[in-house]
Amino acid sequence: MTSEAVRFVGVGKTFPGVRALHDITFGIGTGSLHALCGENGAGKSTLGKVLAGIHPPDSGHLVVFGERVRFESPREALAKGIGMVHQELSFCENLSVAENLCLAALPARGVFIDREATNRRAGEMLEAIEATIDVRALVGGLPLGQRQMVQIAAAVGAGARVIVFDEPTSSLSQREAERLYQLIARLRARGVTSIYVSHRMDEIFRLCDNVTVLRDGRQVATQPVASSDEGGLVQMMIGRSIERVAGSATPATVGEELLRVTDLSSPAKFHDVSFSLRAGEVLGLAGLVGAGRSEIAQALFGLDPKSTGDIDLQGKRVEIRTPSAAMAQGIGLVPEDRKRQGLVLQMSAQSNTTLPLLERLARLSFIRTDEERDLTATYFERLRVRAPGLDSLAAGLSGGNQQKLVLAKWLAAQARILILDEPTRGVDVGAKAEIHALIDQLARNGNAILLISSELPELLRLSTRILVVRGGRIAGELSRAEASQDALVRLMAGIAAQVA
Amino acid sequence: MLHKLLGSQQAGLSLIILALGLLLTFFAGAHEDKASGAAVNNFLNSHTLIQTATDASFFAIMAVGATIVIISGGIDLSVGSIYALAGVAMAMGLRGLGASGGWVNVTTGLLICLGVGLGCGLLNGLLVVILRVHPFIVTLGTMWILRGIAFVSSKAESILVPESLTTVAKASLGLGASLYPVPMLTMLAVAVIGSVYLTRTVMGRHVFAFGGNPEASRFSGLRLDRIQIGVFAISGVCAGLAAFLGASFYGSASCGDATGYELYVIASAVVGGASLSGGKGSAISAMLGALLIVLIRQSIRTLRFDQNYEWIIVGCAIIIAVVLDQGSAQLNARRLARAASRES
To answer: Which of A122, A356, A425, B162 could serve as a FRET partner for A300 with CA atoms 20 to 30 Å apart?
Structure first.
């Protein structure tokens, strides 16, 4: 019988307020690549964390290499050969790569750290996964892709024979992701078993042998990838078929110019950015990670005190030095990192929604609670925010619903110019379709939208025009007719168009 | 309704205070009332109860302000020194002005104390905002600076305050001789006002947002500098008010007043469930925290423990109270989880 590396037997897990996992049972063959997919909040990351010892299960048990085990800590899991590469990478950012890699058992001479031995051992660990990273560099200064390599090196170096990858490519550039895929293939050739948590279909079909679909903490299916098709998996994930967003078959009528940006620059971030944005337009902003897209967005929202250049709103020159000035001019920003920049997680869904507009809801500085409640309820209904109640904490909502909260905030604030920075990152398929429909509808209602996205299909589907940013400058503009995935990639990477 | 009440943040703390009160009543014994000859419980009598509340009131008032600072993610170590400086400034100011009518003295004194408190608070806030130094460092500095100013300007003398102030602070309000409810009532009023500020006003909500996630608050267009200066100003004003009450009540002010109060104040806030990492806390709970600390001190006396052990007992009690609070929060979360899994 082919050996199984891992088997989940009736695993269940409950968190405050949610039943995260429900009676999960399946096995993973040694040396195979097993995908866990599902919407955000379906329990796929939780299941990975149960295996890695971060969340001990409430019921059921695990069998690892034929042995029945129960892990109470990541250390116990690692002792049995299970390591995890986290979505949010946790390192001591103030320490070097070598120190982080050897942190559990720093080589020492007496009470002093043996630097040479530390560097040597870390170097060996990185070499084992064929990664070239300076072991003396501070982890805080490394790009995300390299930090991930360090984490993989740590897991493999500690003897992990099973590695759980939790949405590893969610914040990587295309090139970094490519490198990761190659590394995973190499690990597999060495007999390492991988569990790959993702909701990106292209990855699952490209990398994995088998797939388990989770929905609301329940196991919907476990099957070979070869006998699956994308539509079927998506349908299992969301429990219904998605109505395809019809794109903007009839594009919104483009109206007057709302925003004109002339020679916007910020030292070391972006230079001489000029464009205009009209009512009813969705202007896409494409570019590689680090090209300066988010920085431009933040400057427009008054978050970059060093920026220079002219901003005209409806033909009138304005000074936008603070977010409150931007808000007063009817500009709203949905930032790229919703947990860090978009939400106060330990406040209620309602308080988050009304945060930018409390003054308007108040009489003599006292918040009118009824109006606050009504307003929130209105926008929750409009955006179909699914929360147990208006008072539930933002932290407890799924990624899609959290993102809708951030959107609700700016819709309720009646921002006419909306800057959306990766509005569907880490959002499940259903919520994504809803957000797309909403963007479409907002444009129809005469809002002007600046859409930043790393997902080219999203940009192509929603934008009326696309600007490409490369190295902090506008590298080109494509009309809806000219825009294609190929043309965008060429502009983003700076490759001249091939002569046909 | 009852369920909601029991689940509230203040319920656990109120229960502990009540239990301790019952315990004290039970073990305190009784003495004979000199006038009537009736047996009077050594703890459960209006005099001792009001006295206990009075002991708590001076730093409970400051604890309300400090809680607001703590919710914003900051800390204010300078409240004891603001108290001393405000008291000294008032006593010297009134002495300098010479004899004037009773209410003029009271009003002038109150204005001086609140003004000094506000000024010191604004100073703290401005230093934090302009220098971009952590509030712990800034207020550690001003803690010494302000007390130093009080020391130098008062020449380390204890200065008497006019009697009219004591008359007000020790007004019996018809409760009978040697019962002084004014500090206690002021404490209650400050806690209620603080609670309304935190839960019902725009500023209060901004304080929670800023303490919970400054970055997201900035991205929501809040004016972070104003929030930060505001919380320190409030804390300063609370310290000024406490100084007015304290100096008036005891009849004098000196630069050594309220030494070490900053720690009692922070302890009250923390026992009241405020999180030092910001975003969580309550004004009413801070007051209850102060009451609990005083009650524990009181119980050492009432139960005739060796008073030399006071600090050890208070220290242990603070840690136990915070651990219990965390435990009950976890229990609450688990109860919610069970309820949620039943629903699904």
So the answer is: A425
B338: chain A residues, CB-CB within 8 Å: 14
Measured CA to CA, the distance from residue A50 to residue A7 in angstroms comes to: 12
How far apart CA B251 and CA A61 sit, in angstroms, is: 70
pLDDT at B344 > cutoff 50: no
CB A480 within 8 A of CB A464: yes
Nearest-Cα residue of chain A relative to residue B332:
A16
Nearest residue to B61 (alpha-carbon basis) of B329, B323, B286 = B286
How far apart are the C-alpha atoms of A404 and A430, rounded to whole Å?
Answer: 12
Partner-chain contact B219 A14, CB within 8 Å: no
Cα-to-chain-centroid distance, residue B98? 32
* Average of per-residue pLDDT values in chain B: 89
What integer best gives the mean pLDDT of chain A?
87
Confidence of residue B8 (pLDDT cuts 50, 70, 90): low
Instruction: Flag the least confident range among A24-28, A295-299, B178-182.
Output: B178-182
A236 is written with which tokens?
């299992």
Q: Which two structure tokens, joined as six digits, stand for A387? A: 């929360």
Say yes or no to pLDDT of B308 above 80.
yes
Tokens, residue B22: 């019952």
Measure the CA–CA gap between A281 and A267, rounded to whole angstroms: 29
Q: Rounded to a whole number, what is the distance in angstroms from the first to the last CA of chain A?
A: 55
DSSP A103: G
Quote the pLDDT of residue B15: 86
Distance CA B267, CA B101 (A): 40
* CA dist list (Å): A295 to A309, A327, A417, B169: 14, 18, 17, 58
Question: What tokens does A486 get?
Answer: 């190929």
Name the pTM for this structure. 0.79
Widest distance between CA atoms in chain A? 75
> Does A324 contact B206 at a Cβ distance shorter than 8 Å?
no
**Minimal Cα–Cα distance from A396 to chain B, Å?**
12
Q: What mean pLDDT comes out for the span B290-316?
A: 88
User: Is A19 in CB contact (< 8 Å) with chain B?
Assistant: yes
- ipTM given for this complex: 0.83
B224 touching chain A per CB within 8 A: no
The two tokens of residue A152 are 């993989």
